[in-house]
Design goal:
364 residues, alpha/beta, Rossmann fold
Length: 364
Amino acid sequence: MKSTLTLLATSVALAATLTACAPGMGMGMKPSAPPPSAMAPMGMTARPDADMQAVLDAQSALGAKPIETLTVEQARAQPSPADAVNRVKMMMGMSTLPDASVTTVDLTYPTGGTTQPIRVYKPAGATGANLPVVVYYHGGGWVIANLDVYDATPRSMAKNLNAIVVSVEYRKGPENKFPAFYEDANNAWKWVQENAASWGGDPKNIAIAGESAGGNLALNVAIAARDGGWTQPKAILAVYPIADANPQLPSKMENMASLPLRTPTLGWFGQYALRSPADQNDPRYNLVAADLHGLAPVTIVNAQIDPLRSDGETLMMSLRRAGVPVERRVWDGATHEFFSMADVVADAREAQTWSFGRLRMALR
């Protein structure tokens, strides 16, 4: 059973060509595949920039290991990229305390017959009503991580957008496999609609965002809102989203050894998050095969050294075919998880400035 469920990693490792076309892609349309840099370490598209490498070195020094070599319990407990950023900040003499210009309140929302945590971020100086609202879903492959690991992005978003940002926790595998996390993501969106005004937010002036698995959730919630007649987001930010089940995409072939995420790790996530390999064909997971028409403008952020880079490209192509306005940028020398590292990684600062600027324009 285990070898069957790790189909993604195995098929990538054995693939000899890049000729397979991703599910949902048009005839003859394939993602571009620039050759890996001649200076790239083995199993990586390119060499990370110096500030990015400093974070990777810090995480290694803290004892982190490749996720797919660990049990679920070990993976959840080991040092995270956020811990590595704090180590770098300490080495640079920077404070590791959360930015006090943003306040937080921890609440819960009902879902799946129980409740899940939710964290409301608000600029400390904000007064009155009708602040814009952003609902944010964190990453972790639907198996690991939590609101604390992904604190940096929603905190920065609230400060830079002068907005209320609501970070959503959700059920994860293997305890609660697919599609539990989609049910929770939808329930959180509706709950925020009902409660945003009580925090000083405008539930109609709202956007949605997510990183990695959370980027997938953000797009799925937008689809569910369209189909369910709920308030739809004015804009969608998807940061290196999981979007394409094709194991032979260029970036998955190139990044067998990249950190903190490498291609075999995707198979590990699938083993614990999905009920069976067949779930990879569900359009919620395989977004490039979903009905994407009528969605709000989408912003996609990708890192060069990331097995999910090509997912972002094929998703962009699918959105354009569906008539959805979409803009995408790739940051060279950056790896998966870079987006939340704006305090110590220059590419993250640039990516946040660009993507938050696009959200700001939509939330006027």
